Amino acid sequence: RSSSINKVSRFDVMLLGDSGVGKTSLLMRIMDEKSIELKKTSNTTGPEQVIKTIVLPDAYIRLNICDTPGPERFIHLLRTYYKNCQGAILVYDIQNRKSFERVQDWVFTLREEISSEFVIALAGNKMDMENNRHVSKEEAIQFATAHNCLFLETSAKSNENVSYTFKALVLALHNQQ
Ligand code: GDP
Ligand code: MG
């Protein structure tokens, strides 16, 4: 079957969100799958990149995923990276309202600075921590719908919805072409 696929696309995406929300943990989860190549490691001061191949019915997608360090002092470095991206996964922690406000700021920044078409998936991570939830699903859905973002709650701990989030982002990028 796969020999009939002749279209290969490459997309560059970023993981953004407050420090501690689970960006690196989400990436580790999808790195477990064997199509992951580690492109760059052990750089604690800059974004780290991995490449994941995702096979769609009519295309191979080379997804270059850039993880980002939390501290705000890297914001200038981030800008040079995200200028070359077509999409982003904006991660917040459902236990942390401030982290949810941060991803909302990112939506406005990215759409303004890069493109109004910029593909964004919101990931409400740590959905396993339901007993300490501070951001309702309804509120997140409302924001995502109003701003044309994909939205999923995820858990890097239980692995729920993790690969699905990346696939949803890739499908949106592919369909936009
Ligand atoms: P980053 O700073 O956004 O890269 O966050 P990390 O991936 O380093 O995760 C920060 C902390 O949150 C770590 O202690 C992780 O083990 C924990 N963590 C990440 N994802 C989850 C999750 O889905 N559920 C729970 N309960 N903890 C998580
Ligand atoms: Mg990290």
TrEMBL record:
Alphabetically list the UniProt keywords.
Answer: GTP-binding, Nucleotide-binding
Q: Does the keyword DNA damage apply?
A: no
Q: Where are the transmembrane segments?
A: none
Q: Which domain of life is it from?
A: Eukaryota
Which GO molecular function, any one, fits this protein according to its record? Answer: GTPase activity
Q: What is this protein called?
A: Ras-related protein Rab-5A-like
Q: Which residues of the full protein are shown?
A: 19 to 195 of 232
